[in-house]
Amino acid sequence: FARRDATKPTDGTTFRVTKITSTGQAESPVLSPNGQFLASETLVAGHDAIRVRQLATSSEVEVVGSQENVALAPLTFTPDGNWLLYTSRRQGEAVRTLMQVSALGGAPREVLRDLTASVSFSPDGKRFVFGRAVGVGQSQFLIATLESPNEAEEI
After folding, report:
1. In angstroms, rounded to a whole number, what is the distance separating the alpha carbons of residues 50 and 143?
2. Partner of 91 for a Cys bridge, out of 69, 83, 129, 155, CB 3.0 to 4.6 A?
3. Cα–Cα distance, 21 to 42 (Å, whole number)
4. Any bridge partners for residue 70, and if so which?
């Protein structure tokens, strides 16, 4: 029985581990497709906010401010890396609203209501899949585009 060191790649490549945060307040990190940005949920005064860090410069901005009794999660970058999608859910509500904000900040825009799960994009980046409740213990999956999210097709 031999133990292989998990920190050393077996194909000869090397990698480096870098500490990015130190506050202990960041959760659910998401890396942009080009690897330039890191988005995360951050607790601000006990409420969720969303911050984006440019990894090359360590510059960080809050792109979605905290709101009392509103949960923000999960985060997803669009395949081109220009937009950050997240769901917003008010305390006591079962369903979520899909929101979109520029990766560099700005006013969030409502994309779609009544989601039960995060979104996932197709390889070409034109469509995304999401879940929606249709009854107690039942759900359906739908495919939509950011341009016409309310014209979703059931899978």
Report:
1. 26
2. 69
3. 11
4. 90
Please identify which residue in the block is written with the tokens 């879940």: 131
DSSP string, 49-118: EEEEEETTTTEEEEEE---TTEEEEEEEE-TTSSEEEEEEEETT-SSEEEEEEETT----EEEEEEESS-
How many whole angstroms from its chain centre is CA 25? 16
69 to 35, 41, 47, 49, 91: CA distances (angstroms): 32, 15, 7, 12, 5
> Amino acid letter at 26?
A
- Please choose, from the candidates 1, 43, 2, the residue with its C-alpha nearest in 3D space to the C-alpha of residue 21: 43
3-class secondary structure, 149: helix
Q: Classify the C-alpha dihedral 97-100-71-136 as positive or negative.
A: positive
> Rounded to 10 degrees, what is the CA torsion of 96, 119, 78, 147?
-70
